[in-house]
Amino acid sequence: TAQADYFAAIGRQCGLGEVASDYEFESALERRLLPPAPLPAREAGRERTRDVVLAPTTVPGRHQLRVDTGHPVLFDHPVDHVPGILLLDAARQAAHAASAARPCQAIGMTTRFFRYVEFDAPCWIDTAADPAAPTRLRVTARQYGRECFTASVALTTVPRANDRFEMCGVG
């Protein structure tokens, strides 16, 4: 059938061998790289731990991308690489985690995608001040030592009653 051919092609592209159904595809992906423990939800700017796409590391300004293929929104259909929306959320969460001011939220993002992030190896998310825009943070995703994605993220504090917007501190 066309569906079986589709999943077989995706399985070959992912290095999963022959898969003939969405069940076999998901099962094969689950045997790949399991997601590490997440950052605390509040640190990532999330309310639910399930929505955190970053894991802590021992390197300051660096996180590991958490790829949970069971997430109902980020993986609502079979794919053969990490979806771009997951990288966008990783950039937002990394910027939030690096911000000196809380609570804050992303109000702008300039992105560039260079190559696919694959399922079979860790992807490292590095965050630093953006040298081209001092009020922004630069977030870079690397896998196999190669740059896959960059984002320049602008943040603002979340206003409370009678507060005004201010740019979040980058330091």
Can you give me a brief rundown of this structure?
The protein has 171 residues and is an alpha+beta fold. It has 3 helices and 6 strands, in the order ααββαββββ.
Key phrases:
171 residues; alpha+beta; six-stranded antiparallel sheet; 6 strands; 21% helix; globular
Which helices and strands, and how do they pair?
Elements: H1 2-13, H2 22-30, E1 54-56, E2 62-65, H3 84-98, E3 104-113, E4 123-129, E5 136-143, E6 146-157
Antiparallel strand pairs: 1-2, 2-4, 3-6, 4-5, 5-6
Q: Can you walk me through this structure?
A:
By secondary structure, the chain is of the alpha+beta class. It has helices at 2-13, 22-30, 84-98; strands spanning 54-56, 62-65, 104-113, 123-129, 136-143, 146-157. The protein has a 6-stranded antiparallel sheet with strand order 1-2-4-5-6-3, with helices on one face.
